[in-house]
Amino acid sequence: MIRLPQSSQTAPHTALQTSVLVPIASITDDPTKHMVYDITVPQHENFVAGTIVVHNCREILRLTKLIVDSHVQYRLGNVDAFQLADGLQYLFAHVGQLTGMYRYKYRLMRQIRACKDLKHLICYRFNTGPVSKGPGVGFWAPGWRVWLFFLRGIVPLLERWLGNLLARQFEGRNSKGVVKSLTKQRVDSHYDLELRAAVMHDILDMMPEGIRGNKSKVILQHLSEAWRCYKANIPWQVPGMPKPIENMILRYVKSKADWWTSVAHYNRERIRRGATVDKAIARRNCGRLTRLWLKSEQERQRNYLKDGPYVSAEEAVAIYTTAVHWLESRRFSPIPFPPLSYKHDPKLLILALERLRESYSVQGHVNSSQREELGLIEQAFDSPHETLNRIKRLLLTQRAFKEVGIEFMDMYSHLVPVFDVEPLEKITDAYLDQYLWYEADKRRLWAPWVKPADSEPPPLLVYKWCQGVNNLDGAWDVDSGECTVMLEARLARVFEKIDLTLLNRLLRLVLDHNLADYMTAKNNVGISFKDMNHVNTYGLIRGLQFAPFIFQYYGMIIDLLILGLQRASEMAGAPNMPNDFLQFRDVETERRHPVRMYMRYIDRVYMVLRFDEDESRDLIQRFLTEMPDPNNENVVGYNNKRCWPRDSRMRLMKHDVNLGRAAFWDIKNRLPRSLTTIEWEDEASFVSVYSRDNPNL
Predict the structure, then answer these.
(1) DSSP string covering 29-97, please?
(2) DSSP string spanning 279-321?
């Protein structure tokens, strides 16, 4: 407890006599005791803000005391860890009842409501099955996160208010002689006004005396229109406009566009850095970046229509043939069109609808299209038979679709695209997604290395991978100059580079041609954001319900190009006796090829290769013939895991560095640039070599 001297009401403002009392909670091991306060606030009629600061601090400290007291009880052994976790979750979910914070800052109700929603969601997922109404869920992290972010925002505000309060106590109110500063809000409009003024100046210089007045207004209107066209990425042309005036307007738009873009990048850099940025500026910045991204995307689509297709005929034939041979060797029977009386229809439909509905379970507010979607979902639950008939009719006949809206969700470090698909089409897509995954799994379409899979959640996958490395035959033998190489890489821009014609041909190998046509046509739709529109002719739309299926199938074809059909078959096993993940039929098969382990987790590739002395020497020689390194510069810029302590990192010996680069180069050469590539400079790329000189993998 800290007690500061009380301020005298009659005393003058001097540093010696005036004081402010700081609220400190007394932490005792008795949680029933209340907090002790010694806070006096001067009785000043204009002192509303001051009382709020003090009361706010008090209530925040009351919450802190409750949390600390819970831990004290735990440390004293009065409660166990489960009760502690449950108590914390209860605390964060009931801040409104346990403290009076909302009385002094009502905006806080947002956090209270968010925690309540989280509580409902957690209980809805937890209290099911045997746990009907459980003793409690000790899942406190999401609620804690809400209050942590609240404190991150409120603490600087309280500091500022308290600082102002002290300054006012010591120095009195300073109301005179304040100069209006040029705020950030005014800077934007200032720049624009200056530019317009410069244009007006140019116009007046250009025109003869008589026609200045009435023409300048028209030109400024053209100017605004030209700027709107720039933002929407629409060509701006006015027939019959004099050339000098047109050039002047274009010059204006160019300079404004440069400023507009640079401000967008500058603000984004500040947001990414975590500097304090006004909410409105952050929102506007997200809109600007969306426009800039869409501009470059439209340019990419135009280039494809002009120069494409980028996949050459030879490459396409090779890829297609590889897929055909693989599916034949696996004895795969294609997925038929869902029959009219399919026995799993009701279950698949319910799964699809629940998945769509689940995304709304935590949303408080819904807009009109979301409300429409929820209505359609309920309607589908009520009349599944008609819904299924409609879905199958649309899958068979619909090849033109409503345009898809796009927005970006701002994660501050990066943006995530969110696609808004017509609700009726979304239900069809969701059913198709469930149907395809079920049928593909039943027919064993997926190779064992395609992850994520239902057979193991990610933590278990990491464990299995490490165990797989340990179980490799002779993985740690380096006496005769052998090396074990672990390679990680990200397949770059796979989504963006999917050619829809090639995709259609590949899909027809595993699906009914009607379904393949529906899925490719669904990617060839208009995409719109405000006044910007374009048709997607190249690349996959990520927001479709069945996009994961397409990606995993397309990714599996890329895997076959990396592994080669022979090794892929050895890893997958015989069609009638398929291998499990990281298993081979026998040791001889395992040792037959350098690639010993392989896994692709969405777009990240992980592989373990094993070379004997001759193989590594040949590979390094081939690499250095193509990429000579006379000054031994390969060591420079070799990606290493900086998060590990120095003695655990890979030692950059010349032989091992060359082998790492050579293995990466060899895998990269197996991938056609038109499909995807792996980049050495990518932060996800890393090659670790275990050898005589390197004791860590």
Answers:
(1) S-TTSPPP--------TT-HHHHHHHHHHHHHHHHHHHHHHHHHHHHTTSS-HHHHHHHHHHHHHTHHH
(2) HHHHHHHHHHHHHHHHHHHHHHHHHHHHH---S-HHHHHHHHH
Residue 448 to residue 445: CA distance in whole angstroms: 10
In this predicted structure, what is the pLDDT of residue 697? Answer: 86
Report residue 383 as tokens. 């009349």
| Angle (nearest 5°) at CA 131 between 127 and 135 | 80
List the beta bridge partners of residue 528.
405, 533
- Of 2-6, 217-221, 652-656, 684-688, the poorest mean pLDDT is in 2-6
Q: Nearest CA to 525 among 537, 514, 543?
A: 537
Does residue 208 register a pLDDT over 80? no
Q: How much is the pLDDT for 5?
A: 39
- The Cα–Cα gap between 578 and 650 comes to 36
Give the up-direction half-sphere exposure of residue 399: CA atoms within 13 A in the CB hemisphere: 8
- Residue 688 forms beta bridges with which residues? 486
Calculate mean pLDDT across residues 453-479. 93
The crossing angle, in degrees rounded to 10, of helices 500-510 and 313-329 is 20
pLDDT band for 13, please (50, 70, 90 cuts): very low
Q: Which residue has the tokens 């069109």?
A: 337
Instruction: Write the DSSP string, 478-518.
Output: -TTS-EEEEEEEE-BTTTTT--HHHHHHHHHHHB-HHHHHH
User: Each residue of 281-295: pLDDT tens digit?
Assistant: 999 999 999 999 999
What 8-state DSSP symbol labels residue 252?
H
- Predicted pLDDT at 191: 83
3-state SS class at 690: strand
CA torsion, ordered 179, 185, 186, 189, to nearest 10 deg: 180
DSSP-derived letter for residue 392 is: H
Instruction: Identify the pLDDT of residue 367.
Output: 86
Nearest to 554 by CA among 609, 515, 496: 496
State whether residue 687 is helix, strand or coil: strand
Statement: residue 19 has pLDDT above 70:
no
- Maximum alpha-carbon separation in the chain: 96
What would the mean pLDDT of 498-523 be, rounded to a whole number? 97
Contact 486, 553 (CB under 8 A): no
pLDDT band per the 50, 70, 90 thresholds, residue 682: very high
| pTM of this structure | 0.76
Taking the alpha carbons at both ends of the chain, their separation in whole angstroms is 54
CB 429 within 8 A of CB 421: yes
Provide mean pLDDT across the span 462-474.
94
Q: What pLDDT digit, counting tens, does each position of 40-77 carry? A: 544 443 445 667 888 899 999 999 999 999 999 999 99
**Angstrom distance (rounded) from CA 82 to CA 74:** 10
Amino acid at 100: G
Sheet containing 404-410: which strands, arranged edge to edge? 415-420, 404-410, 526-529, 532-535
Q: Could you tell me which of 222, 286, 292 has the C-alpha nearest to residue 257? A: 292
Does residue 408 contact residue 523 with C-beta atoms inside 8 Å? no
- 651 is written with which tokens? 């030692």
* Polymer length of the chain: 697
Contact (Cβ atoms closer than 8 angstroms) between residue 636 and residue 658: no
